[in-house]
Amino acid sequence: QHQTVLDVSCGIGTQAIGLSKYGYRVTASDLSANEVERAKQEAQQREQTNILFSVCDMRTAFGHHGGNFDIVISCDNSIPHLLTDDDILSALQQMYFCLKPGGGCLITIRDYDQEQRCGKNIVKPYGKAKIENGKRYVALQVWDFDEQHFQHYDFTLYMIEEDLNCKEVVTHAMHSRYYAIGSEKLIRLMQNAGFENVIRLDESFYQPVFIGTRPLT
């Protein structure tokens, strides 16, 4: 019997589709209806049509999905979109209730322990430049930390699009806001939500991986 996986922040389906290819029975949701629609298209193109996609806020995951999953995941720095400890704890409790006894939770976030919280206009490269259909695409991030506590930051992703024939340049800007939560606090919140054996794993993924289990009893 294949294990069941619930992805509570699936985005465009990166983890959900990959896990489905490996034989897991995947249920996936995201707060963004547009992302979920894109995930459905990506799954269809890759012949992974058994994934159950839906729109859901991770803070209401148990009410939406129910329980008894083997594994619940939230990857790619999704948790820090929640801007308070209370909201993160609420999401973690929902993930906990979605698990069967003995089930596992897996979370990945950016390694905020290593980030310099040095104010505003922090520029970070994002991937490599690529050329596609006669256009060059370059991306970069700009972070603006709140200067009172340096715990939250406004995030802007600039996508620069250059037409290599006419040299016209168009810049797109996408905005978000994050909570730069550290490892110790996330581990403590996972424990407060009920998880045991909570640890951080490094070198297994491009981001730190946090795992915990729901007790058997």
Element layout with pairings:
Layout: E1 4-7, H1 14-21, E2 25-30, H2 33-45, E3 52-55, H3 61-65, E4 69-74, H4 85-98, E5 99-108, E6 122-125, E7 130-132, E8 135-145, E9 152-163, E10 169-179, H5 183-192, E11 196-201, E12 209-213
Parallel strand pairs: 1-2, 1-4, 2-3, 4-5
Antiparallel strand pairs: 5-12, 6-8, 7-8, 8-9, 9-10, 11-12
Structure report:
With 217 residues, this protein is α/β, with parallel strands linked by helices. The protein has two domains: 4-112 and 181-213, 3-Layer(aba) Sandwich (Rossmann fold), CATH 3.40.50.150; 116-179, Single Sheet (S-adenosyl-L-methionine-dependent methyltransferases). It contains five helices and twelve strands. It has helices at 14-21, 33-45, 61-65, 85-98, 183-192, and strands at residues 4-7, 25-30, 52-55, 69-74, 99-108, 122-125, 130-132, 135-145, 152-163, 169-179, 196-201, 209-213. It has a seven-stranded mixed sheet with strand order 3-2-1-4-5-12-11, with helices on both faces. Strands 6, 7, 8, 9 and 10 form a five-stranded antiparallel sheet that branches. A hairpin with a 2-residue loop joins β7 (130-132) and β8 (135-145). The radius of gyration is 19 Å and the shape is globular. The two termini are 23 Å apart. This is phosphoethanolamine N-methyltransferase.
